[in-house]
Design brief:
392 residues; alpha/beta; TIM Barrel; 9-stranded parallel sheet; 13 helices; 9 strands
Length: 392
């Protein structure tokens, strides 16, 4: 009898664990995420007010959004310090501490979002200009405004010093109690080619990769690559046709990303990243081979299809390409398709979610809460769509 009861107890515990796992998998399968940017970043005079935080977290909860990815470090940090010793991101920490009570109040997962290789703090630029990327013309991105964007200042991902710096920035956020994870953005090279739908608005002609936009030819990378191959990449007539040079840059971003994911995991937090729309486009446009980011828990391809002059169905195609390549490369995490609210009309939300789901996406993510808020009736229609999505 005692043996029977013990066995029954074990079976009950096993069943509970199995149910718990199945529930978790189901929840992840239909989990809805949203990026939250703009009102909390340094592009604003002040961080979001308590009224704004209350509004957005309440609306997210009511609509069925499970997790918010909160931008805490953007392209225009307020801190204009001359201190070249302490690089602690106090502003990001303050934003997180201000927002955590609202995440807790509404039972929403809070993931904190920081820019990675794209760093433009003036104290960092002053202290370590040699850490920044150089183009094939020999010019540092500190000395030119790529695409006429002030914030396009990019750390070289191959430099060990840059990695250590970024580990510290990740750690100081990951150790904060209450956050669920750390989200890496701009973890890539600057655009060698912009997404095709942006060429006209940015006034560029990019029928191929031109030296102005081709990075990183800094002294470290040139010497490092030459020691490996005997080739100075600056002497290559057609750099993008050299398989070893392309692989060198893909590998640099991959190693950096996986190392930062491991750092996030040291604090028991979820490691995620936003990446370009499809593996093939990412490798071509921004030297980002993201299906080899094997240490990440969730990868969010930003399938903002109109920027690629693509039809709606490309959401499914790009999603499937990513899922398939992640399997080949034995990624530890899963793919969650990112949709741009500005490219998803109110009457097509169901259709766009279906494209991502049919492509193999686990969950769905929208950019952004502010974009949703700007469109009349979007909250209401999104809520209806999420209810249907979670019932499947």
């Amino acid at each position: 009898m005692k043996f029977f009861l013990n066995s029954l107890g074990i079976l009950l515990i096993a069943s509970m664990i199995l149910v718990s796992c199945n529930e978790r998998q189901t929840n992840e399968k239909t989990k809805v995420w949203a990026w939250f940017s703009g009102s909390l970043t340094s592009t604003q005079t002040d961080s979001a007010s308590d009224e704004q935080l209350e509004y957005y977290f309440a609306k997210a909860k009511e609509t069925g959004i499970d997790a918010i990815i909160l931008e805490v470090h953007g392209g225009y940090p307020k801190v204009d310090s001359t201190d070249t010793v302490d690089f602690t991101d106090y502003e990001a920490i303050d934003i997180i501490n201000k927002t955590l009570p609202y995440a807790k109040k509404y039972g929403i997962e809070l993931h904190v979002w920081l820019w990675t290789t794209n760093r433009c703090e003036k104290n960092l630029r002053t202290a370590h200009p040699d850490w920044y990327q150089v183009n094939a013309e020999g010019n540092s991105c500190l000395n030119i405004k790529l695409y006429n964007r002030e914030h396009y200042r990019w750390l070289c991902p191959a430099r060990p010093e840059a990695l250590e710096y970024l580990k510290h920035r990740v750690a100081e956020l990951a150790k904060i109690d209450g956050i669920a994870g750390v989200h890496l953005d701009f973890i890539r090279y600057p655009d060698a080619i912009l997404p095709y739908g942006l060429h006209e608005s940015r006034g560029v002609v990019q029928d191929k990769v031109y030296p102005l936009w081709d990075h990183c030819y800094c002294d470290f990378c040139r010497a490092n690559f030459k020691s490996q191959t005997g080739i100075d990449p600056m002497t290559l007539e057609n750099p993008t046709e050299n398989a070893e040079w392309m692989q060198y840059r893909w590998d640099a971003i991959t190693k950096l990303t996986n190392a930062l994911a491991q750092e996030i995991h040291r604090y028991g937090k979820v490691a995620t990243a936003a990446v370009f729309a499809s593996p093939s486009e990412s490798r071509k446009l921004v030297r980002q081979d993201w299906t080899k980011f094997v240490e990440l828990d969730v990868i969010f391809p930003m399938i903002y299809h109109k920027f690629y002059n693509a039809e709606d169905a490309w959401i499914e195609t790009a999603t499937r390409e990513g899922v398939d390549e992640m399997k080949v490369n034995q990624c530890n995490g899963y793919l969650c398709s990112g949709l741009f609210a500005g490219h998803v009309p109110v009457d097509k939300i169901d259709e766009m979610i279906a494209y991502a789901t049919n492509g193999g996406s686990t969950g769905i993510c929208f950019f952004s809460l502010e974009g949703i808020n700007k469109t009349p009736n979007y909250w209401e229609k999104l809520k209806e769509s999420i209810i249907k999505y979670k019932k499947k």
